[in-house]
Amino acid sequence: MRPQDKHDPGGKVRIKLSDGVRGEAVFSDCGRYRQSLIRDWTPEDEIPKSVLFVGMNPSTADAFASDPTVMRETVFSADWGFTRYLKANVLDWRATNPMDLPKDPQMACSQDNRWAISRMADEVDEIIMAYGRLPKVFQSVVEDIIEICRRSGKPMFCLGRNKDGSAKHPLYLAKTTLRVPF
Fold first, then answer.
1. Number of structural domains, the chain?
2. How confident is the model over 158-176, as a mean pLDDT?
3. What is the C-alpha to C-alpha distance for residues 102 and 108, in angstroms, rounded to an integer?
4. Range of the domain at 147
5. Looking at residues 153-178, what average pLDDT do you find?
């Protein structure tokens, strides 16, 4: 049994990868957590141009299929000229409905998550913060992840800010939405 099959995050929308797109994903042994997701459509013999999206929490996407948020973010990425998309999340607990996240920040964000985000931030050209509004109980985790990304020295952007200052979640934003400095 694959790790991702040991935990049901809810939601059943799974979008097949487009031809020419290679996928990778890293899950915890228990399947409850996904630390990273990659989509790569870099042509052979070209150096990839990479972007990291930092979202709220993972859902159903894995190495073979995307979910609606991942699909939306890869479209933004390709439209901006990137050829490699990396996905991390402030919380790495897999749940389609954010109401299903554990209320304990230590449970919702594994120790492996911080290391994975740091590693991915170091290997990309740009970081897009896209985590949306999280309950206040997770604010210290959000601040920690933002600091990890800042330490990479990479340019940080978002798709706008919510009233509370959080980075807007991309799922329902217009395709023409521009990234702005974070």
1. 1
2. 96
3. 5
4. 3-181
5. 96
